[in-house]
Amino acid sequence: MTQPASLPDILEEYEFLDADDRYRLLIDLGKQLEDMPAPLKTDATLVRGCSAAVWVYPIARDDGTLHFLADSNAAITKGIIALVLTTVQDRPAAEIAQTDIADALAPFDLSRQLSSNRTQGIPNMISLIRETAGRYSEAEQ
Fold it and tell me: Against a cut of 0.70, is the pTM above it?
């Protein structure tokens, strides 16, 4: 797996592309996600409210950071979750809990680029990640 690009780098490329190529970019981001083992794809890790199945599993690291494994059964949705994770991956739980992920993703204007069916679950993905980080942050205190 290659080192994922930073959010500003992804945005720079995204803004340059036409609609079809933006879809391809999201699909490519999804392909770069670390493999999520099938046993972790359970009802407990399923993100509710997404039109496609999306699973997110947090791993607490010894250094206080959170690393997320994620997957989806839809290529573009997998790219969206990869984009979401770019904003928070491998950061301290308290920092993730305070991150305005929606604001960080606002320049991508996904609601205008993608159908509402594809974007309806994004707030649920964000909420799950922030709530998870909040729980880990509280446990550290």
Answer: yes
